[in-house]
C-alpha cells in the first residue's frame, strides 16, 4: 500500500531524512517513535506534499503509483490523509462548508456525484455523534475556539468522511487529556479495515495502549534503526532512546 524506498530529504541546507525505507501493507498499523529531531514530522510533511521540503533521492509509492510529483490535493484524492500535530485554525471558513467542499471534491475527482445537502448533513451527523462532536462545534469556523482535544476529534471526523486508504497521524496524542485520548483513539480504531493502513507517529506508549500497532519502528537521525512488535514500544518507554541513537550514529 505505502512503499518508501531510500528516501533522502532536506530543508534548506539541512539533510533530515537519510535513506528511510518503510513498507506498510493494507490493514496494518505501524508506529514510528524516536527522539526529537529524528525526522518523524518531516516524514509526515513530505508524504503530504508540504512545501519547502526537498526530496533529493528515493521514491514514495501509494498503491503502486509514485506520489512525489503530485500536489497535496492530488495525494489526498489518491488516498492519503495527514492528521496534524497542531491543526490550524481557519477563521472565516465554516466547518460544514469546509467538510462539504472537501468531500465533494474527492467525489468529483473519482467520477462520483456530489452529495446533496440533506445527504451530507445525515452523513456528518452520524460521524459527529460517534466522536462527541457537538452541533455548536460544527457551526464554528474551522478549529476556531476549539480545545486541543476538539481539534483532534475534528480531524478524525474529516478522516472518517474522506475514507482514505493510508492515514498518517503525526503525534495525534499531543495535548490530549485522558478522556480526549480515548475518544480520538476509538475514532481511529473504528476506521481500521483490511483495505486501510495507518502510520502513527508518537513519542509515547500511552497512545499505543489505545491504538495497538502491528509493527513499531525506531527512527533516529533520519532513518529507521530498529523494527519490532508492540513490545518494542514498551522497551522504549522503559529505557528511552539512548541505545537506538547510538546505533544510528554507529
Automatic annotation (TrEMBL):
It comes from Pleomorphomonas diazotrophica. Keywords: ATP-binding, Nucleotide-binding. This is Fe-S cluster assembly ATPase SufC. GO terms for molecular function: ATP binding; ATP hydrolysis activity. Pfam families: ABC_tran. Residues 2-246 form the ABC transporter domain. InterPro entries: AAA+_ATPase, ABC_transporter-like_ATP-bd, FeS-cluster_ATPase_SufC, P-loop_NTPase. Belongs to the ABC transporter superfamily. Ycf16 family. The keyword Transport does not apply. SUPFAM superfamilies: P-loop containing nucleoside triphosphate hydrolases.
Amino acid at each position: 500500500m505505502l512503499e518508501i524506498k531510500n528516501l533522502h530529504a532536506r530543508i534548506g541546507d539541512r539533510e533530515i531524512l537519510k535513506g528511510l525505507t518503510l513498507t506498510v501493507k493494507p490493514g496494518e498499523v505501524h508506529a514510528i517513535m524516536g527522539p526529537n529531531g529524528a525526522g518523524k514530522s518531516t516524514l509526515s510533511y513530505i508524504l503530504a506534499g508540504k512545501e519547502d521540503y526537498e526530496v533529493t533521492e528515493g521514491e514514495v509509492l501509494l498503491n503502486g503509483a509514485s506520489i512525489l510529483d503530485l500536489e497535496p490535493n492530488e495525494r489526498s484524492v489518491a488516498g492519503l490523509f495527514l492528521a496534524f500535530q497542531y491543526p490550524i485554525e481557519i477563521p472565516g471558513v465554516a466547518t460544514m462548508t469546509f467538510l462539504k467542499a472537501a468531500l465533494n471534491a474527492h467525489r468529483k475527482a473519482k467520477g462520483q456525484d456530489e452529495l446533496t445537502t440533506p445527504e451530507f448533513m445525515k452523513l456528518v451527523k452520524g460521524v459527529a455523534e460517534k466522536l462527541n462532536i457537538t452541533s455548536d462545534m460544527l457551526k464554528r469556523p474551522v478549529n476556531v475556539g476549539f480545545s486541543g482535544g476538539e481539534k483532534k476529534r475534528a480531524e478524525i471526523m474529516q478522516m472518517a468522511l474522506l475514507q482514505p486508504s493510508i492515514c498518517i497521524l503525526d503525534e495525534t496524542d499531543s495535548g490530549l487529556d485522558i478522556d480526549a485520548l480515548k475518544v480520538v483513539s476509538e475514532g481511529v480504531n473504528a476506521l481500521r479495515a483490511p483495505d486501510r493502513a495507518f502510520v502513527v507517529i508518537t513519542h509515547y506508549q500511552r497512545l499505543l495502549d489505545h491504538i495497538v500497532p502491528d509493527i513499531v519502528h525506531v527512527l533516529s537521525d533520519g532513518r529507521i534503526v530498529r523494527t519490532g512488535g508492540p513490545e518494542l514500544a514498551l522497551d522504549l518507554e522503559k529505557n528511552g532512546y539512548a541505545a537506538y541513537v547510538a546505533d544510528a550514529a554507529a
